[in-house]
Amino acid sequence: MQNKFAWIMTPDLPWDDRKEMITTALESGIAYVLDLEYSQKIRKLGNVNIISDEDDADIYLVGIDGEGDGSIDLSENLADSKDLAAAKKAKNDGKTVCAYIRITDKLHEQLAVKLGPIVDYIILIGTDWTIIPLENIIADLQKVDVEIIAAVADRDGAKLALETLEHGTDGVIFEANDFAQIKEIADEVDNASRVKYELKVATITNVKPLGSGDRVCVDTTDMMQPGEGMLIGSYSKSMFLVHSESLESEYVASRPFRVNAGPVQAYVMVPGNKTRYLSELVAGDEVLIVNTEGETRTAYVGRSKIERRPLILIEAEYEGKTIRTLLQNAETIRIVDADNNPLSVADAKPGDKVKVYIEKSARHFGIAIDETIIEQ
To answer: 3-dehydroquinate synthase C-terminal domain: from which residue to which, for each copy (predicted)?
Structure first.
């Protein structure tokens, strides 16, 4: 599942009041602002993406007039729509394009579907609508490379839009007019972006100390709690839950931002149900933090540290399949047992039950696909 997102529309307020709402949105992780008046001032507030009908906008808007109330030119012949023509021209000019459509009848639904293959984003504004038009548009555009954004007013509206037809919209947009509202909707979007992995219990069959290799510590910008770590393994289809260094030890101080992840060739799960090699991770990359229930959240890599260390091989079996991973051979490196307790690799032995994730699909360049690939 792709991460959900939120954009804001600035309220019809004087600049100083508008500025406070934009700043709160930025602090809440929302960096996309639809504003038709103050784009230059907004850019000075931070690294912001402007959505407007100006030529230098980061995302060029069609289907909205200078008053911001939507001006779709709709005729019985959709091919004659001036907004359809404007979208095609903007795309031909190399712009990233967003269409803004008020859904008031079936023709507007049809226009949205027509615009889908042309634009990059579609903002859908409901007037008196039920959820049905949104469902129809999502269904019609599910195989089209376009991001669907629903206009909402509050957290409940955001939750409904993001869950419609299970997949939901890709994002939401709202008029930012209250500090609490901004934070609540940002929080709802964050919750909707979290996927859950079904963790299985595998049985350790072999523990074998090895020589030295290059292993990777992944330092994130988040503080992890006991019970959290990352999905890591030698095979992209099967990974162990490797515990964070959030526990105190008589040997070293806790490093709750860190997962001592394994050797450079190992895979780590990242957002979008994709994997990366540990050796590829650099500051600013996204990784998934996973807890013992398989619940996830996204974190950023602050640093990836590669050092030469002694390694240990852990082999386990699940339903007749053997899975393996290599980790640093040290008491402070832990996987997770069947009772959700951290298990040091120094104490791991055949017969121990541990948490793993098994992917049904094969992977090609880190993306799950329906293909037979043998990893051993």
So the answer is: 202-376
